[in-house]
Amino acid sequence: MLCIALFLIFSSTSVYAQLFCTNNSNYPVWVAVGYNYMPNNPDEIGANVNNVWVTESWIMLKVGETAQLSTHIGYDHTYGTKTNFYYYAYQPTPNGKIWAGNRQLLIDINPPEVDPHVFKTRILFANRIDLYQDRPSLQYAKFRMVPLENPGYYTVVLEQDDPDDGMYYPVMHGDE
Q: Per-residue DSSP letters for the chain?
């Protein structure tokens, strides 16, 4: 009986890998995150669930601050599956640093609502600008890959002297 009770408790409780970001640069930084997404309920997106990318933006990190970018990596019984994480960050200062890569995903450069502590803008199909012709404030940004080698907690650390990302992440067919 005890084994059944423990099984029920642990099977309904999920343990997730989580993604964080720390700003160790010299100035505040705005951060957006992008990831490949597969909902538990395909009706949520009303289309083919393959190659669905989502971006969430914007949170502000003061110098020395750390924030959670995602509550889970991989499968979650409530929120679906999130994989292949990318981030885009910039300093809102003259000649501020930009942390970018080669993965093109949409961001809202003029979002209707911003809370520096919570992602307020979520773009479903962030790899499909053709779906958003009526929203000129959506533009592509080049996101940098988050290396997720092992399960656990991950922290992207933004340093002022980080080299530009010279790695090539190919744009998949249909993502342009």
A: -HHHHHHHHHHSS---EEEEEEEESSS-EEEEEEEEEE-SSGGGTTS--TT-EEEEEEEEE-TT-EEEEEEEEEEETTTEEEEEEEEEEE--STT--EE--SEEEEEESS-S--BTTB--EEEETTT-GGGGTT-TTEEEEEEEEP---SSSEEEEEEETTPPP-----PPPTT--
Q: Is 122 exposed, middle or buried, given 0-12, 13-18 or 19+ CB atoms closer than 10 A?
A: exposed
Whether residue 38 contacts residue 105, with contact meaning beta carbons closer than 8 Å, is answered with: no
| Model pLDDT for residues 4-51, shown as the tens digit of each residue | 333 333 333 344 568 889 999 999 999 999 988 877 666 666 655 667
**Four-residue CA torsion sign, 85, 46, 71, 3:** negative
Beta bridge pairs of residue 155: 20
Q: Say whether pTM exceeds 0.85.
A: no
